[in-house]
Amino acid sequence: MRHNAPPELLDTYHAERQQVAADLLQRSSGILSRDQEDSRTGWTRRGDDTLQLDLTYRGGPLAIDRRPTPADDALQAGDRAPDAPCTDTSGTLVRLFDIFRSPHFTLLAFGDTPTPRLTGKQVRTYRIHTSRTGSDTLHDTHRHARNAYANTGLFLIRPDGYIALATHDPNDVTTYLSWQHLTAAASVGR
User: Fold this and answer.
1) Where in 29-152 does DSSP place strands (E)?
2) How far is 168 from 21, CA to CA, in rounded Å?
3) DSSP line for 76-92
4) Reduced to 3 states, what is the DSSP secondary structure of residue 15?
5) Residue 58: Cβ-neighbour burial (10 angstroms; 0-12, 13-18, 19+)
6) What DSSP character marks residue 45?
7) Beta carbons of 178 and 91 less than 8 angstroms apart
8) Which one, of 155, 161, 162, 152, lies nearest residue 61 by Cα?
9) Which of 125, 128, 121, 156 is nearest to 142 (CA)?
10) What is the mean pLDDT of the chain?
11) pLDDT higher at 180 or 57
12) What's the alpha-carbon Rg for the chain, to the nearest Å?
């Protein structure tokens, strides 16, 4: 809220978290059920689903995907932003998770996709590229980042590490950060 987000942002919490809470209750019930109990130890087995690494906000009020119909298995707005090793212009290893830390949005620009001019916003922009040009460039030598995200496009990562926006149009980033989409989203959540 201190970075000029409107009060409607709080109204999206219920719409975004309601399905997550329902899924968590279902998983918890499954863990406690008799059919998962290990007869040798009396302990319940816990699978990868209890780690919540597959948690997604796809279709939620804060997840906007403006790309032409991505494949179902493609990374989309609402998914957790993947980590990948890159190097900075000096050759130092930089992990994407490290640049996502702190209370700011992160914009990843892949390939030659134009980036918006962002002034006065809490956004850090990084270009993921094969060449080492510019102080904001991260070098993706082994294609880990591009394989996880895309060869081209813009991905706006929320402060909590989820993809807020996936697009090819820099104007979509500016619009998202102006919070214009929240008025409609807040009315859906009520």
Assistant:
1) 64-65, 85-87, 93-95, 105-110, 123-129, 137-139
2) 32
3) -TTSBPPP-EEE-TTS-
4) helix
5) middle
6) P
7) no
8) 162
9) 128
10) 78
11) 57
12) 19
